[in-house]
């Protein structure tokens, strides 16, 4: 004999289906908001929140090429803390491995937790890592505390 579903079971299946559809709809809204926010960031920042690993890697590779072609000295990659990755961060390790592939210097959690600070240039070559570091270096040469 074939099995049939009770009315309660069929209702529950319908709820599960609509719950997953609702989750996907919410996820797509989140991605659109993240994309809109990313459009307002400076070219030296890239926000990968809400992207799958493959999408994030493609977007990062594209930005690396842009930065190299335009002689940009650094890139801040916002990968997040991994709270939305079912227990283990996925983006951060994947992007760190990508930086190794390109032999780029990558400092995790700079300027803040959930970011990667990438420096372009040859290993051992001094890199200008920002106006603030230069400012601090300059004032330490002239600042005397009596």
UniProtKB/TrEMBL annotation:
Spans annotated as Disordered: 1-26
InterPro entries, A to Z: Smr_dom, Smr_dom_sf, Smr_domain_protein
Smr domain mapped to chain residues: 46-121
SUPFAM superfamilies per UniProt: SMR domain-like
Superkingdom of origin: Eukaryota
Biased composition (Polar residues): 1-21
Name of the featured protein: 1775_t:CDS:1
Provenance organism: Racocetra fulgida
